[in-house]
Amino acid sequence: MTAFYCVMTAAAVIFAGTVYWKTCQLLKQLDAMLESAIDGSFSEKEYTEDMLSRLEARLYQYLSVGRQKQEAADRERDGVKTLVSDISHQTKTPVANILLYTQLLLENKSLDSQALQIARQIETQTEKLNFLIQSLIRTSRLENKILSVIPKKNRIRDLFQRLSPPAEALEKGVEFGVIGEVPDICACFDQKWTLEALSNLVDNAVKYTPPGGSVTLSVQEYEMFVRIDVTDTGIGIPEEDTSRIFARFYRAASVQDEKGVGLGLYLTREILHREGGYIKVASVPGEGSVFSVFLSKETDE
Asked: Do residues 267 and 280 touch, judged by C-beta distance below 8 A?
């Protein structure tokens, strides 16, 4: 009886060892398959009826479909890149010429008041058209990764030094300034694109602030983020619009008469999102708004 148990135990050990060895071999083969799939060298071997071969065939099909979709996406991106480049090139000269001829008309002393008014309207509408075209081009380039947002360690103080006070603030009599001294701290952001995002917020704040109001900037440091507030004493944003203002082309009913195409805030949010930051807004209609930009202090690397 004892011998029987010994034989059975030995058989069980051998069986378990065999199963363990086969399992280890299967896992090694699966690991090799996944490794080759990751580095792009995966290829289907001669098909057999075993489970591993079937799995290999399915993985090959999956990777083939994914590769085809990626190639189609790359072709589409190249097409968009070409289209955006063509639009930028083809519209630049005509728009510049229209503005030039309009300025020549405005300098013509022989025009009567009605003709001058028409010339000013042409100039205004052409500037709006140029702004729309350039906004669409920047947005398209960003969305299609033609231009990349590359965040890296930058000084907040350098960002503020590159931020120019908007000319409209002086024209409207809107006070513009920075509250306190900008601290000598760093965050991770793309300086060029973040400057554009911050400029969009400042321009919007000045645009919707009546004469005699103010637009201020301030900086606050947190453990993981640096916060930049753009505060205005403007018309404010209704509560039902605060969740929509960052959508592309969205413009609230209360600002339809103001210049703009509804791309500034959308572009700002996209820029911040792509560099690991985000934006929040708090507003009271009739009292003003605070747009808060949060820049990460750490990279994703």
From this structure: no
Q: Which of 152, 162, 298 is nearest to 217 (CA)?
A: 162
Tabulate helix, strand, coil % of the chain (nearest 5): 55, 15, 30
Strand pairing partners for 77? none
- This prediction has a pTM of 0.61
CA distance 263 to 138: 10
Q: What whole-number distance in Å separates Cα of residue 147 and Cα of residue 190?
A: 12
Which is it for the CA torsion 132, 136, 137, 142, positive or negative?
positive
**How far is the C-alpha of 151 from the C-alpha of 273, rounded, in Å?**
11
Structure confidence by residue, pLDDT tens digits, 136-186 = 777 776 766 666 788 999 999 999 999 888 888 888 899 999 998 899 999
Q: Is 50 exposed, middle or buried (0-12, 13-18, 19+ CB in 10 A)?
A: exposed
Separation in Å, CA 102 to CA 96, 107, 123, 195, 224: 10, 9, 6, 31, 51
CA dihedral over 180, 181, 184, 188, signed as positive or negative = positive
Give residue 123's pLDDT band: very low, low, confident or very high (50, 70, 90).
confident
For residue 72, is pLDDT > 80?
Answer: no
